[in-house]
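Quick one: co-fold with cobalt (II) ion.
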Amino acid sequence: MKLLKILEFPDPRLRTKAKPVKEVTNVHRELIDNMIHTMYESKGIGLAATQVDFHERILVIDISEERDDPQVFINPEVEILNKDEKSGYEEGCLSVPGFYEEIIRPEKIKVTYLDRDGKKQTLMPEGLLAVVIQHEMDHLEGILMVDYISNIKRQRIKQKLQKSAKEKLAS
Ligand code: QAP
Ligand code: CO
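Sure, here it is.
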């Protein structure tokens, strides 16, 4: 298994819109295994292919306490079941390390996707899983958590991350 490099905000590659997976192949399955490994090593609960600079529509998520229940979503599509029911959650992002912000999103969604065998699946997730799916699907559109917060806060986060990236390069 390979540890993949996770792109960090404001890397412009995070703004790439991912293309649908035409057919789930072993190349995809190998990437998925590496993404799951990378998510666990980084103590994450979700990772989108965009974040590891692969621009096809793939997500991996594990919200289990035991970290032994990886879920794979290929070509996910979300339907918002109730536009008026929203809730806030303190979100983090492996591409925005060290920062957490409350983001308001719809609560009730239905997700249709392919699993790692290319089989079509449907899910009506609740709570954290619904939040993480929406957060990760944003990545496939080139949208980041920081796009939902004020410009001033986003600028501050950008400066701090650029500063630590520079320090890491120099060390
Ligand atoms: C998305 O994000 C998410 O800053 C997944 O230093 C997370 O796994 C959606 C992480 C929470 C909703 C709620 C972040 C790890 C992990 C950090 C993650 C960090 C280390 C983020
Ligand atoms: Co993220």
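If it helps, Residues 151-170 form the longest helix (20 residues).
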